[in-house]
Amino acid sequence: MKYFFQSDSLVAKDSTAVAQLLQGAKLYEPEAVKFSFETIGWTVVGVVLLLGILVLIFFGVRSHIKNKYRREALEYIKMLSGEDQRLMEVFVVLKNTAMKAFGRNKVGGLYGHDWLAFLEKTGKQVEFLDRENEFMAALYKNDMLSNEGKNRLLVNAEKWIRTHAREL
Fold first, then answer.
1. What end-to-end distance do the CA atoms of the chain give, in Å?
2. Which InterPro entries does its entry note (predicted)?
3. 35, exposed or middle or buried, with CB in 10 Å at 0-12, 13-18, 19+?
4. pLDDT (tens digit per residue) in 35-70
């Protein structure tokens, strides 16, 4: 193995003498590298970044358009939450939202226990079956919901609309 620096080429043998010799020496400085954006690499980087931004915008707009039915349903439920007489319309909103997401063939014939089980199956951390008797009595017998039942219905309906899967 050859060394580029040989210790016998220096006149001084100790490190302080070497440091003194190097202190007076001029350093060789190369010319400054000229920088410009006119090279092909910057054009490629610019095009790739522009395409990336356009792709992100495309997917963002597409997601916004796809979730329009969710925003409309949430808005309608918030409107219904203040009116006790129309509270059962929340189930109509849920049915319409489910039909938009899953299709009329899968959702149209569901009612009662099967409907509530479908909502729990397709939503994340949604609990409709724990108050099944109260909800069914309010829907089919026109009984009034308790305050806790109203609260649970609205919270679970909003949670289902936000978290339901688009496909089974």
1. 69
2. DUF4381
3. exposed
4. 888 889 999 999 999 999 999 999 999 999 999 999
Whether 12 is covered by a domain: the verdict is no
Beta strand residue intervals within 25-91, DSSP E: none
Structural domain total, the chain: 1
Classify residue 110: in a domain, yes or no. yes
Domain that holds residue 99: 67-163
Residue linked to tokens 């439920």: 77
Which of 85, 74, 53, 99 has its CA nearest to residue 154?
74
- b/e burial code for range 89-114 (CB count within 10 A of at least 16 → b): ebbebbbebbebbbeeeebeebeeee
95: enclosing H helix or E strand: helix 89-102
pLDDT at position 168, please? Answer: 61
